[in-house]
Design goal:
10% strand; 3-stranded antiparallel β-sheet; alpha+beta
């Protein structure tokens, strides 16, 4: 293992930019590990499942922050999403993973259901409206309640929403632009307002009883001398949870409702199966990139430090070797009795290994409840004959167009 793999020569970014999905499908003709120049960044695209899981399993010994996420540090600081320093990242993660685990998230279930039912009841019936912003506001209410609960006000919600908009607008602008240092004034203002709001919440909390929402959990972790987490770190983690727990769920629910609206026969399918199938077809993290910080041996090759690795989830999740009828919306494939081939190792919408998404259980509960309760309440049809695609350079693989919809009561 002494060299990187082979691949096409020359800067591939112009071709990649035209149609990333088709490019990454076609690139596989070079093999399961393909070296390319992606806008001046030497990159290995990895399709081999053993190599992918080897990359995910790395305990930040060879893997670091990729260039594509560099701008996010201006918003999330040392939060788990952009933190690749094991000494600070690992103890923080241990404290945060338990309250968001499969058993613990049940604590938030009743409040989540109340928010979902109240919001769904306010959606317009019998007239055209755009589904996406309605779903987005619902997801924002849920994640904000998870974090702040009693401190949440209408103005606080506006502050959070403005910051999320600015983060996405800046981080997704001009993907070939390597300048990650010049912040737009509107971005800095929105982020400062968000941190000011979070700091105010933190300062009002009683250190002896910081509360049972996620800010309370963060403050409890900060009180542990074994966890490197100060007041700024608490704010960083809160912003990270907002960012990671808002747009990803918004995209999943929006695509799920669009898919069911176009395939009405699936409306009686188990809501969790609908969510799983949506995550397969439109994974919120559609491409994972990792910086190689120390030479990494995978698949019979050595990836040198300074290179990056790209894992194309939305190609792997639609590979016919991994899933029968990969381009068809078939929620029934997730049923125990299904005869459709399903390669479990080829399905990792929340990643795996140390960087596995700590909010996955909460996100799955939220998406499943919204989809299921929507289906119980409404019949719907999508009014645009052209189905949405994912925005290829978005931080989250969100719909690339509005989702005009019409509802009727069941």
């Amino acid at each position: 293992m002494t060299r990187p793999p082979d691949g096409p020569t020359g800067d591939q970014f112009p071709v990649f930019e035209e149609d990333p999905y088709r490019y990454l499908v076609d690139l596989r003709r070079y093999g399961d590990h393909v070296a390319i120049d992606l806008g001046g960044i030497p990159t290995v695209v990895v399709y081999d499942l053993d190599s992918i899981h080897r990359v995910f399993a790395d305990k930040l010994e060879h893997i670091g922050l990729p260039a594509a996420l560099g701008r996010l540090r201006h918003a999330t600081g040392s939060g788990l999403l952009t933190n690749y320093d094991w000494a600070t990242w690992s103890p923080r993660r241990r404290h945060l993973v338990k309250p968001l685990g499969a058993r613990a998230v049940g604590h938030f279930h009743a409040r989540m259901i109340r928010i979902i039912d109240e919001t769904l009841a306010s959606w317009p019936v019998g007239r055209r409206f755009d589904l996406y912003p309605e779903v987005r506001f619902l997801a924002l209410r849920i994640v904000a309640d998870l974090l702040f609960t009693e401190d949440l006000t209408t103005e606080a919600t506006r502050v959070i929403e403005r910051a999320v908009d600015e983060i996405h607008a800046w981080a997704e602008a001009d993907p070939s632009n390597a300048d990650i240092d010049t912040e737009p004034e509107s971005f800095r203002t929105a982020i400062d307002d968000l941190y000011r709001f979070i700091a105010g919440v933190v300062n009002r909390r009683d250190p002896a009883d910081p509360g049972h929402d996620m800010v309370g959990v963060l403050l409890g972790a900060a009180a542990d001398p074994g966890v490197p987490l100060d007041a700024t770190g608490v704010c960083d983690e809160a912003v990270t949870l907002i960012l990671a727990g808002h747009e990803t769920v918004t995209a999943t629910i929006s695509f799920a409702l669009d898919l069911v609206g176009r395939h009405p026969a699936t409306a009686c399918t188990d809501a969790r199966h609908i969510v799983d199938e949506t995550l397969r077809m439109f994974p919120p993290v559609h491409m994972t990139t990792k910086a190689v910080t120390a030479d990494l041996d995978i698949g019979g090759f050595t990836i040198p430090a300074g290179w990056e690795i790209l894992i194309p989830e939305y190609v792997i999740f639609r590979d016919p070797h991994n899933f029968d009828l990969p381009d068809e919306f078939r929620p029934d494939r997730w049923a125990d009795e299904s005869r459709l081939h399903l390669e479990r190792r080829a399905y990792f919408p929340f990643l795996t290994g140390p960087k596995f998404c700590i909010g996955s259980h909460f996100a799955l509960m939220e998406a499943t409840e919204v989809v299921g309760r929507f289906m119980d309440r409404y019949r719907h049809r999508m009014l645009d004959p052209e189905p949405p695609r994912g925005r290829p350079f978005a931080l989250t693989f969100a719909p690339d167009r509005p989702l005009p919809c019409e509802l009727e009561h069941r």
